[in-house]
Amino acid sequence: MSKISEFFGLNCKDDSLDFEAAMSAQTCPYTQRICTKMRKSDPNVKIGTCSVKYQNQDVIICPFRLLEHNQIFIDCLHLLTMHEPGNELYLVPEVQIPGGHVDYFLVSAKDKKVKDFIGIELQTMDTTGTVWPERQRFLNETGIAVDPVDLNNKKPFGMNWKMTLKTILIQMHHKSETFEHLNKHLVLIIQKPLYEHMKSDFNFDGIEGVRLGDPVHIHSYNFEEKEQRLTLSLHTRVSTDSEGIANCLGLNAESKVELQDLIRILEPKLIEANRLKIGISG
């Protein structure tokens, strides 16, 4: 039995789905674009593995999988403390700040002038090895012809829990100082197994409960099967500050930017394509 849980957003256990059509289209259902997970030996072939089965859990391995229904962004709206009815909401991807880039900025604006914003980082698991042989085994199980060489490849993939977490916590620490300096919020979105490893592998003393005034928030999500679909739901929220993140790692760094500098970066990106879509488009 293959260890692939989802293939281009489709539940691999649902035999009624057209996996061959998904393989041909190579479209990510969460971005409506071509999948970015490409095979190194042939970049034209997209791997399409959103999540995999590992140690009896369905583990997300692509950050775009977290975009389901834009729920993760809706769950952050309360942190836009300066947002008012009538303001527009924008979702601005890939913004560069000191300390690195931020995956998304959720921006409240009036007449395309920034009134408030929060930064949102997405983190899913990094795998060791390759999931390609498992992908090919899955396709073979569904009756789709694949290269026999791939089926004979017995190399397993693994999960690099500690390195994934250390990398994101270091990045969060650098960026959290900037957001704390600006009196704004930075949110980390992760899946429940990653959150549980974070608590067990790093010093989480004092990081419990959630306070609106804290600059750093962590939202952990369940990923469970409901009605033949794997679905995200909010599991828990905690918050802290840059010192709390530093205590996890024993780090010390400064990467600050002034508020007006960041607003100058954001406002040119407040375009129609970046409006936050909620519910029925129109």
UniProtKB/TrEMBL annotation:
InterPro entries: Resctriction_endonuc_II_NotI (IPR022009). It comes from Bacteroides graminisolvens. It holds the Pfam family NotI. It comes from the Bacteria. Residues 19-198 form the Restriction endonuclease type II NotI domain. This is Restriction endonuclease type II NotI domain-containing protein.
